[in-house]
Specification:
The chain has 545 residues and is an alpha/beta fold. The chain contains 17 helices and 12 strands. Helix 3 runs parallel beside helix 13. The longest helix has 35 residues. The termini are far apart.
Length: 545
């Protein structure tokens, strides 16, 4: 029997240990590789940039091997030509990479003194070969990061471990990107966190507005989570991604680039404009009408225009000019202006203050009287990384008349709004490790809870009126003109104004409670008396001895 050498045994053990390391451990090691270097935002972009190069490189090599296999019986020179032809890759939604932009080249030179310059050049080369990535990658990020070559090599080594063969997950790219977007949002400041909306919240929006075909728009798209979830909705319901187009814009240049990379590496076609820009002062899709809007605008944004700007803007026609000190209603009116007037639907998040903002009373009244608001859903507290407050999901529908939608028959909901209060759904907690010894806990909605909300909403819309019933402390359908309705409540949109809350103290049978308590006290007294009697007997026995 052949005996293995010590070196071979050690090599096998090292390989076994390596394969046992979890994906979470690898991703954590990627994050800590740059610990102590630069800002959270720069480190985020540096890590995600290398992850982008790794996945782009893997896709390129896979496609390169496919070309060789498809033409294995052809002239080797023809194969070489095809392997170096940009269209051979772009036609399969794969980025063409020059040799200096390939991940294998980065790994080979990971120990070089000028590795930062090599990575920056790779970024420039991948953008140069792929016009769709114009402006998406950071320029000279790694050379100005302040990380020495050992830290960059350590990061490259960890990123190199993120491999589909090793971690056989159905959507490894999505899993990895979601991890980094989440943890960097959780560990950053309020401004750092604005680029990310919790995935379960975005999934809830998608499940309610059902963006199955048409154009999906986000006027403040952050890192692109709304777009990703809209296409995941299509996948879950066996639709066709080709029927959905993505447009949007983002004002922050770093976040705009991050979004383009996030969508590009997932193979999601998109139009985010030629640059970052403010939706209010430079609408990059000014004349575009869309089928769906999904958005999480910055809460209570101040200074979004000067006092003299946009005072006669077409978006406010029929309404009053939204105030400078808070952009909440400016976002609402902007999104309504984008929706197709015959069937457009929007789902967006706002701070709860917008539900009864006295300074926007007239705009809120007109929105309600114009019958644009279909549903108001208050979410549990502490779901977001930038605030622990409860926020509201607004559903705007340009057509609340009877009709058919996704095979369902919808009744006429004119003059009616559905209110749902989910603040008591706060039992499910997700813990995120944001640094060594530092964790952040956030409330999440489970898939089952999301399905329950969707069922309530769909049943309320249905022509079968037996399906929906008001539920105390959860949901209520309210008409504009009914007694104690929306007009009577002076156009307030807080669900607590309409949903009946039960006084649980009144449900207690006081007499029975007192009788039960009396019995417990009586039993305790008898037990105490018996104990005293036994102690006296014991004392008497001791005395007699």
């Amino acid at each position: 029997m052949e005996v293995e050498s010590g070196d071979l045994i050690m090599a096998r053990a090292a390989k076994a240990k390596d394969t046992q390391v979890s994906l979470e451990t690898v991703l954590w090691n990627c994050r800590v590789a740059l610990r102590g270097v630069g800002s959270t935002e720069k480190n985020r972009d540096a890590v995600i940039g290398l992850v982008f190069l790794k996945f782009a490189g893997d896709k390129f090599e896979k496609r390169r091997a496919q070309i060789a296999e498809e033409h294995k019986n052809d002239d080797p020179k023809l194969v070489e030509i095809l392997q170096n032809k940009v269209s051979s890759y772009n036609a399969e939604n794969v980025f063409f990479l020059k040799e200096t932009a390939r991940w294998s080249y980065i790994v080979k030179h990971a120990s070089a003194d000028d590795i930062a310059v090599i990575i920056d050049q790779a970024m420039a080369d991948i953008e140069d070969s792929n016009p769709a990535l114009k402006g998406a990658v950071s320029k000279n990020l790694y050379a100005t990061l302040g990380a020495d070559k050992s830290k960059l090599k350590s990061l490259i080594d960890e990123v190199n471990k993120i491999d589909e063969k090793r971690f056989q997950e159905e959507d490894l790219i999505g899993r990895v990107y979601e991890y980094f977007l989440q943890v960097y949002a959780a560990s950053g400041t309020k401004e750092d966190g604005e680029f990310y909306t919790p995935a379960c919240v975005v999934k809830l929006i998608a499940e309610i507005i059902e963006p199955n075909s048409g154009t999906v728009y986000d006027p403040c798209c952050g890192s692109g989570g709304m777009f990703v979830q809209s296409l995941k909705f299509v996948d879950r319901h066996n639709g066709s991604r080709k029927k959905v187009s993505i447009i949007g814009q983002e004002s922050n240049p770093d976040t705009w680039r991050l979004c383009k990379m996030n969508l590009a590496i997932r193979g999601i076609a998109h139009n985010l404009g030629e640059k970052n820009a403010s939706t209010f002062t430079e609408d990059l899709h000014k004349d575009k009408k869309v089928d769906f809007v999904m958005a999480n605008p910055p809460f209570n944004l101040k200074g979004w225009r000067t006092e003299d700007e946009l005072t006669d803007d077409y978006r406010w026609h029929g309404y009053t000019v939204p105030r400078v000190a808070n952009a909440n209603y400016a976002w609402i009116l902007h999104m309504i202006s984008k929706l197709d007037v015959s069937h457009g639907i929007a789902g967006f998040l706002l701070a709860n203050g917008a539900l009864n903002d006295p300074d926007e009373y007239e705009n809120r009244k007109r929105l309600i009287e114009n019958d644009k608001v279909e549903a108001i859903i208050v979410l549990p507290r502490d779901m977001f990384y930038t605030t622990n407050i409860s926020v509201t999901l607004w559903i705007i529908n340009m057509n609340k008349k009877t009709g058919e939608w996704h095979g369902r028959q919808l009744r006429d909901r004119s003059g009616e709004i559905l209110f749902i209060d989910l603040r008591s759904w706060d039992q499910n907690i997700e813990e995120i490790v944001i640094d060594k010894g530092k964790r952040k806990k956030k409330t999440i909605l489970t898939d089952e809870q999301i399905a329950n909300v969707r069922t309530i909403y769909n049943n309320w819309q249905s022509t079968d009126r037996t399906l929906y019933k008001d539920v105390p402390e959860l949901c209520k359908s309210v008409r504009l003109s009914e007694p104690d309705g929306i007009r009577d409540k002076d156009y307030a949109l807080m669900p607590s104004k309409y949903i009946r809350f039960i006084n649980h103290d009144e449900l207690i049978d006081t007499k029975k409670e007192m009788e039960s308590l009396s019995k417990e006290i009586h039993a305790a007294l008898l037990e105490e008396q018996e104990t005293v009697r036994l102690l006296k007997l014991a004392a008497e026995e001791v005395r007699q001895c």
